[in-house]
Amino acid sequence: MNKYLLLNPWIYDFAAYDFGIKPIGLLRIASYLRASGDVYFLDCLAGCARSKKKTGFSKFRKEKIDKPAALKDIKRPYFKYGISIQDFKNKLLSIKHPDAIFVSSGMTF
Predict the structure, then answer these.
(1) What is the 3-state secondary structure (H, E, C) of 15-73?
(2) pLDDT confidence bin for 22, thresholds 50/70/90
(3) Highest taxon of the source (predicted)?
(4) Cβ(106)–Cβ(27) under 8 Å?
(5) What percent of the chain has pLDDT over 90?
(6) Are 79 and 13 in contact, with CB atoms under 8 Å apart?
(7) The pLDDT of residue 55
(8) Phi, psi (5° rounding) for residue 71?
(9) What is the widest separation between alpha-carbon atoms in the chain?
(10) Residue 80 — φ and ψ, nearest 5°?
(11) Taking phi first (over 0 means left), then psi (-120 to 50 degrees means alpha), and beta for anything else, what does residue 53 get?
C-alpha cells in the first residue's frame, strides 16, 4: 500500500491572519488518494493559533526572521507563521518513507 504525505507549508510574510484560509485543494487531493493508500497530512498552519476570536478567526503563531534581500528596504518586521521547526521535524519523523509528497501553496501574488 502506498504512503502519501500532503504538506501545507508555513507562510513567510509581513502579516498573516487565519481568515478562513484552509488548504481545500490539498484536502480534496487527500480524499482521492485515500482509495489507494495511507494519507498523512502535515499542515504547518494548523493548531498553532495563539488565540481564537468569537468569529472563529485567529492569529497564527509567528517567529521573526530575516527578510529576503529583495525586501530589505521595507521597514517592517518579517515573520514565519505556523508551527515551530521542531514541531515540524517531530511530525515529519513520525511518517516513515512516503512514496509521494504533495506540497500546496496558498500564497499567490
Answers:
(1) CCEECCCCCHHHHHHHHHHHHHEEEEEEECCCCCEEEECCCCCEEECEEEECCCHHHCC
(2) confident
(3) Bacteria
(4) no
(5) 68
(6) yes
(7) 72
(8) -110, 5
(9) 51
(10) -105, 120
(11) beta
CB 5 within 8 A of CB 40: yes
Confidence of residue 21 (pLDDT cuts 50, 70, 90): confident
- Contact between 40 and 80 under an 8 Å Cβ cutoff? The reply is no
Residue 58: predicted pLDDT: 74
For the chain, the C-alpha Rg in angstroms (whole number) is 16
Candidates 76, 10, 72; CA nearest to 46 is: 10
8, three cell numbers: 501545507
Burial of 69 (0-12, 13-18, 19+ CB in 10 A): exposed
Provide the grid cell at 102: 504533495
78, 13 Cβ separation under 8 angstroms: yes
Residue type, 52: K
- Which residue's entry shows cell 478562513? 20
Say if strands 100-103 and 2-8 run parallel, antiparallel, or are unpaired.
parallel
